[in-house]
Request: fold
Amino acid sequence: MKKVQTGQIVEFYSNSCLVKTKFGEFSCLAIKNVVVGDFVELEIIQDSKKLNGKILSIQERKTKLSKSDGSKTKLFAANISHVGIIVTPKPKTSSEFIDKWILKSKLSNIEPFIINNKIDIESDNEYKIKLGIYKSLGITNIDCSAKHGDNLKELIDFLKQKSVLFVGNSGAGKSTLSSKLIGKKLKTNSLSNEQGVHTTSISSLYELQNNTKIIDSPGMRDIEIKNYSKDHIISGFEEILEASKGCKFTNCNHINNKGCLVIEGLANGQINQSRYNNFIKFRDNG
Reply:
């Protein structure tokens, strides 16, 4: 076994982590900015008759996800290819939550897709129309019931060769879905008034068959987007961005300027009202 190895962070604690290499898993002290999903170079060292690792460097990340906490931005996962946005009829997922994560994913060069969970629960027409909006935008939508295991094969097939992070509101079934796919029960508090609380204390990466990787990270629900510029915000709304290219004025506010093709697209139904409302809200209020 070589003294210096390449591995991936599969568990991350507050000041330590577990690195998986082809020779096994090694406990390491965490270095600055290392997160679950990172590929690292580590030195294998003998410590009290036990092999441990010392992280020497972090390899270049293909992608990274961060979250803002006030004025601070903190990385929480790396090398993710897809974000699965879990949407449910009860508790009903807002279009604002969906659009925030689509925006966040696209600005991180990560592909978003939607998991319509709890298909065993009857949904109203408003909810079905909401799902239809994102299907019309070409965003992959997979229907399933994590609780009953319905249609999980379609999701498993879709996840082949992908590294995915699931996100969802409290009670959306994120931990139930992850547990079914991973084959290991993840810790959650019991539901209260249909609102679940995620209490996982560590971030973990689980490797499944077909090179599928699932990252489970605590506290990944709502996110701040105040750190994005107005020019960045429109990138999360591709249909609005495309329409804006034909606006009469390059500095069009897409609200009341003459010759605005975004407003025209809204009027003729090419742009959905809720998507437009969220675009304006995110852009002007953060």
